[in-house]
Write a structure and sequence with these properties.
The structure is a homodimer. With about 210 residues, the first copy, chain A, is of the alpha/beta class. Helix content of chain A is about 40%, strand content about 20%. Bound molecules: guanosine-5'-triphosphate (GTP) (2 copies), magnesium ion (MG) (2 copies) and zinc ion (2 copies).
């Protein structure tokens, strides 16, 4: 439809800009509370300027997430939709132009908390990354397949909670593989730091 | 807009039908994995036919949730959107007409897992019920205010996990009260059953 064509024009503009500036952009998509912001807080610690990155924080309301990122000394711009359930390419494009792209290796878009709609919108990213916490249940990839199909990688978060929740990691990975045979699955905890290095190495290789 | 007007016509049709049949309808809205289906499984046990109810299960894909409800001997119809991130009134209206309304006291709509869009759509319910799990974080009401503003009651689920997550119940309730002064907040666990009776009593009083 026309709106999608319009979105795609902006996504391609963004892709052109990022290629020219040699900046990697990833689009983190997951439910509210899946742990996206916590993962970025952890990455700020673990990356220690090995990869210089900034964050485009997408939310319906509040600047809370951008403030959390700023508190760990990473530049963050808060994008507020005021109601829309997903970020679109035009909004992301304008926010990008305000970042110091010449001094960055990577931009992370944290999309609005939502497992459905963000998967449908290209915002010019190199990769969509699906974020699912072990508290949400191992059947979620099957129930929300588009995101897991589109993702270039999947992150299972909060694995420190595995002792206390009914989550079968093998079942969940099998569900993911049925939908997407090639995306690697990273199991990690932003709380304890376990597994975060493997995820960071994958990012390093994508640059 | 026209589409909203159209949706509202069907919602009012539904309200008329439910009033005529003396059936209470509630619309459960919360993130993927917040515990909506688990709560319905627990209600099937606790209600033991005191309130005769059926479920309209909304999902993007799979019949998993309807099957879980059927497995505890409650009638469930699976409504599949195939992509839409929320249920709409017309779909709910047609599904309702296939239920044995003369033999029911209540219909529960379990909406698509999503904290944003379902709050915008009236499907003819008497009440929207916001469902938030303690694993998601106590800042979510502020970040996704429309649902909490529209809800006639809020359910905080999975309280058995409180020892293992960073969730301040008082902060969360304060966040909710700022947005919605009158909605009661029920803290419960579908896993252990704690707090479920208070929720059920509220439903009883609404009939
Ligand atoms: N136990 C545990 N809790 C975590 C972990 N990561 C995040 N959390 C908690 O999960 C809750 C939600 O984390 P957020 O980082 O706000 O989640 P989010 O995906 O950014 O949420 P939205 O931006 O609203 O979509 C918070 O209470 C975090 O403390 C983890 O690795 N382990
Ligand atoms: N510890 C604990 N886990 C729970 C509780 N309720 C649900 N869960 C778990 O949370 C996960 C998600 O539960 P569901 O009932 O599928 O959540 P849902 O809200 O119906 O998910 P969607 O329909 O996909 O939006 C499952 O692994 C459940 O076992 C609870 O009270 N305590
Ligand atoms: Mg966040
Ligand atoms: Mg469910
Ligand atoms: Zn949506
Ligand atoms: Zn929607």
């Amino acid at each position: 439809k026309d709106l999608m064509g319009e979105n795609e024009k902006w996504a391609n503009e963004t892709r052109r800009l990022l290629t020219e500036k040699c900046v990697l952009m990833i689009n983190l998509i997951g439910s509210p509370g899946s742990g996206k912001t916590a993962l970025l807080e952890r990455m700020a610690k673990s990356l220690e300027n090995r990869i210089r990155f900034a964050v485009l924080e997408g939310d319906v309301e509040t600047t809370r997430d951008a403030e959390r990122i700023a508190a760990v000394n990473i530049q963050a711009s808060q994008l507020l939709t005021g109601g829309a359930c997903h970020l679109e390419a035009k909004l992301v494009h304008y926010a990008l132009k305000d970042l110091p792209l010449d001094d960055l290796d990577m931009v992370v878009v944290e999309n609005v908390g939502n497992l459905v709609c963000p998967a449908e919108f290209d915002v010019g990213e190199m990769a969509k990354i699906a974020v699912l916490s072990v508290a949400e249940g191992d059947d979620k990839p099957s129930k929300y397949p588009l995101l897991f199909h589109e993702a270039k990688a999947v992150i299972l978060t909060k694995i420190d909670l595995l002792l206390h929740v009914d989550f079968d990691v093998d079942d969940c990975i099998a569900n993911i593989k049925r939908i997407n045979a090639s995306a690697p699955v990273f199991t990690l905890s932003a709380k304890t730091g376990i597994g975060v290095d493997n995820w960071i190495n994958w990012l390093h290789e994508r640059r």
